[in-house]
Write a structure and sequence with these properties.
There is one protein chain. By secondary structure, this protein is of the alpha+beta class. The longest helix is centred in the middle third of the chain and has 10 residues. The chain has one domain: Hypothetical upf0131 protein ytfp, CATH 3.10.490.10. A 6-stranded mixed sheet has the order 4-5-1-3-2-6. It has 3 helices and 6 strands, in the order E-H-E-E-H-E-E-H-E.
Length: 136
C-alpha cells in the first residue's frame, strides 16, 4: 500500500484530486504533518521544513503508476539533484486529528529558498484553501 500526505490541490474535492486520484484511492484519512505551509502566487501551496502544523489527508492506494503521476505533477524526479526539483518526495511521520501517529508516509516538500524565490506567503492556520474565482 502506498500512502501519500497531501495538503493542496490533491486533497479530496480539489482540482488535481478530481483529475488524478478520483476512483483510484482506497482511503483518504484526515491527517496533520509538521512544517510551514505557504500559498504560492501560482495558486497552489508548498510546505517547507518547520514547526507548524499542516492539515491535509493521507491518500492510500496501490498503484505505482499513480505515484509516478503525482511525482510528475509535483515536478519531482528522484534521479535529479534535490535542488533541481520543485518538490522533493520524502518520508515523514504524520498524525491523525487526535494526534496519534499514522506512521511514515510520502510527502512532497519544497525548500525554504524556493518558496521565498516564488513569493510564498505563509498560511498560519496550516489549512490551504483553493483560490476562489472572482465573482461576476
Amino acid at each position: 500500500m502506498i500512502r501519500v500526505f497531501v495538503y493542496g490541490t490533491l486533497k479530496p474535492g480539489e482540482i488535481n484530486y478530481r483529475l488524478l486520484c478520483e476512483g483510484k484511492i482506497n482511503r483518504a484519512i484526515p491527517a496533520i504533518a509538521h512544517g510551514n505551509l505557504y500559498a504560492l502566487p501560482a495558486g497552489y501551496p508548498a510546505v517547507t521544513p518547520g514547526t507548524g502544523e499542516v492539515h491535509g489527508y493521507v491518500l492510500e492506494f496501490g498503484s505505482l503508476a499513480l505515484l509516478a503521476e503525482l511525482d510528475a505533477l509535483e515536478d519531482y524526479e528522484p534521479q535529479r539533484p534535490a535542488e533541481a526539483n520543485d518538490y522533493n518526495r520524502i518520508k515523514i511521520e504524520v498524525m491523525d486529528e487526535n494526534r496519534q501517529s499514522l506512521g511514515l508516509v510520502w510527502f512532497y516538500q519544497m525548500s525554504s529558498e524556493r518558496v521565498e524565490a516564488m513569493g510564498g506567503i505563509q498560511i498560519k492556520d496550516g489549512i490551504w484553501r483553493s483560490p476562489q474565482p472572482p465573482s461576476i
